[in-house]
Design brief:
There is one protein chain. The chain is mostly helical and 323 residues long. It folds into two domains: 126 residues, Cytochrome Bc1 Complex, Chain D, domain 2; 128 residues, Cytochrome Bc1 Complex, Chain D, domain 2 (Orthogonal Bundle), CATH 1.10.760. The strands form three sheets. A two-stranded antiparallel sheet has the order 1-2. The chain has a two-stranded antiparallel ribbon with strand order 3-4. Helix 6 crosses helix 9 and helix 8 crosses helix 9. The longest helix has 28 residues. It starts with a helix and ends with a helix.
């Protein structure tokens, strides 16, 4: 018996030692680096249509994190809405400045970063990766970033270095790894197919699932619909007042989701921040640039996702108590 206990003790000590070594490695290495993605493509042709479409996407998806109100440009800022457990995270300067922004990046390098999260220097960025965004949408984003708009003109504001917590470092070594490049063309479904188009908007263009599933740590970027609590809300963010706020349940549950919302009510909530139960709280942005057809398509798709019962404080104390 003593021999067995001694062996078990040695095994436990060995596991503790290996765990300590792994933790030390993660702490020292920090957020990992990789070989830069190799994208083969022709330079993006900037047309007025692409610039306008890219401006819409960037202001809907990128400006919320990258627009600095002090500079009036996409020079980056502290991401205070990120969970405090992630440490201090900052968005980067993505203006055309060649030293501090992306002015020296090629189109292929920019596409690689948008698709995988890995920059031209091989460093992994703490950012959403748009692996499911259509090629045309990605090219439109690039066309806008190269445009004459004031938000993207060269600005020498330096990007701040990340101050990740041990948790965030560990996550980037495990569940928050970069996504691979698409193996073929990525094409958005036709707008005439409302459900398919809405699914694309939720997963590809606007990435609604990222905040509205259970947790950033359990999201599945390659197969978003396999994310834990897909579109059921409960992901902890930080509100404008610095207090924790949970994302809302967007499944068709009539009690804790949007099952009792009309299409018109959903459109008002997404585009103007007015839900049937009052104004939506920050950090949910108002997607005022989203057109009505897009909002209706998202609603059509959300009506098809599996129902999850997951109350958040906006549903009232009684509902939360029965979670």
């Amino acid at each position: 018996m003593k021999k067995v206990l001694r062996i078990l003790g040695l095994l436990v000590a060995g596991l503790v030692f290996l765990g300590a070594c792994a933790a030390t490695f993660v702490q020292v290495r920090g957020i990992p680096s990789y070989d830069p993605p190799k994208v083969v493509m022709q330079p993006v042709k900037a047309t007025p249509e692409r610039i306008a479409h890219g401006q819409k996407i960037v202001n809907a998806m990128c400006a919320d994190c990258h627009l600095n109100r002090g500079t009036g440009a996409l020079t980056g800022k502290p991401l205070n809405e990120m969970p405090a457990a992630f440490g201090k995270v900052y968005s980067a300067n993505i203006t055309q400045d060649k030293q501090h922004g992306i002015g020296a990046w090629t189109d292929a390098e920019l596409v690689g970063m948008l698709r995988t999260g890995i920059g031209r220097d091989g460093r992994q960025r703490v950012m959403p990766n748009f692996v499911h965004m259509s090629d045309e949408d990605v090219h439109s984003v690039l066309a806008y970033l190269h445009s004459n708009d004031a938000q993207v003109q060269p600005n020498p504001t330096p990007s701040r270095e990340q101050e990740p917590s041990f948790l965030l470092k560990a996550l980037t070594h495990t569940v928050m790894k970069p996504t691979p490049l698409p193996t073929g063309p990525v094409v958005a479904p036709p707008k005439t197919d409302a459900v398919a188009y809405g699914r694309y908007l939720v997963m590809g263009r606007y990435k609604c699932y990222d905040c509205h599933s259970k947790d950033f740590k359990t999201n599945n970027d390659l197969e978003p619909e396999k994310s834990a609590g897909y579109m059921g809300g409960g992901n902890e963010l930080t509100g404008a007042d610095g207090q924790p706020i949970l994302s809302r349940n967007l499944t068709p549950d009539p009690e804790t989701g949007i099952g009792d919302w009309t299409e018109g009510q959903f459109v008002q909530a997404v585009r103007y921040g007015q839900s049937p139960h009052g104004p939506l709280r920050m950090p949910m942005p108002k997607f005022t640039l989203m057109d009505e057809a897009e909002a209706k398509a998202i609603y059509a798709y959300l009506r098809t996702v599996p129902v999850l019962k997951n109350a958040t404080p906006e549903d009232g104390a009684a509902a939360v108590a029965t979670r």
